[in-house]
From TrEMBL:
<dbReference type="InterPro" id="IPR000253">
    <property type="entry name" value="FHA_dom"/>
</dbReference>
<dbReference type="InterPro" id="IPR050923">
    <property type="entry name" value="Cell_Proc_Reg/RNA_Proc"/>
</dbReference>
<dbReference type="Pfam" id="PF00498">
    <property type="entry name" value="FHA"/>
</dbReference>
<dbReference type="InterPro" id="IPR008984">
    <property type="entry name" value="SMAD_FHA_dom_sf"/>
</dbReference>
<protein>
    <recommendedName>
        <fullName>FHA domain-containing protein</fullName>
    </recommendedName>
</protein>
<feature type="domain" description="FHA">
    <location>
        <begin position="85"/>
        <end position="136"/>
    </location>
</feature>
Length: 178
């Protein structure tokens, strides 16, 4: 996964070329602590660990935004309307999240081509799926919008349209306006 900093050279690519390479939407994540990655990899098929930071989800998002360049970018790259992207700790999930608070199969993102966005649904995870610090109810499907904070257990993400990421890269690059 590239970091935002590693994508800076692509700020000067035309937005259409960036979209072709990245897909329409991305999830941006603070890299997990190495110890949590190791625990998650060892757990693989074992039990999910209870959430440690439930009350700090919003605080963690603010920390993420302050260190934006170091965040990892996950390109979702949906290709067809209705395409589902599983989120979880298991190999084979579209988005593998190496965090012990994430369930083996935690949630599903579904691409809605006409709206140009994804919806999210929790799959009965132990620690829940959170959208803008509000927990999704069981079976609840919510549409995502540009800039939403999305958390799977303790793993915090920022959901962005690829055009938004491209604009940020362009503005924050030397000579780009900031």
């Amino acid at each position: 996964m590239p970091s935002v900093q590693q994508l800076r050279p692509f700020a000067y690519a035309p937005v259409q070329a960036f979209l072709q390479a990245s897909g329409p939407v991305v999830l941006i994540q603070q890299p997990p602590e190495p110890v949590f990655q190791q625990v998650a990899l060892r757990l693989a098929e074992a039990r999910t660990v209870g959430m440690a930071h439930r009350s700090r989800l919003v605080d963690r998002l603010l920390v993420m935004l302050q260190a934006f360049d170091s965040l990892e970018v996950h390109f979702l790259g949906p290709e067809a309307d209705g395409q589902e992207m599983k989120v979880g700790r298991l190999e084979g999930c579209t988005l593998m999240v190496h965090d012990p608070s994430v369930s083996k199969q935690h949630a599903v993102l579904r691409w809605h081509a006409a709206q140009g966005t994804c919806s999210v649904k929790d799959l009965g995870s132990m620690n829940g799926t959170w959208l803008n610090a509000a927990e999704l109810g069981e079976g609840e499907v919510r549409m995502l919008t540009d800039g939403d904070a999305l958390a799977f257990g303790d793993a915090q993400f920022l959901y962005l349209r690829a055009e938004t990421l491209h604009s940020h890269l362009r503005l924050a690059s030397p000579g780009g306006g900031m």
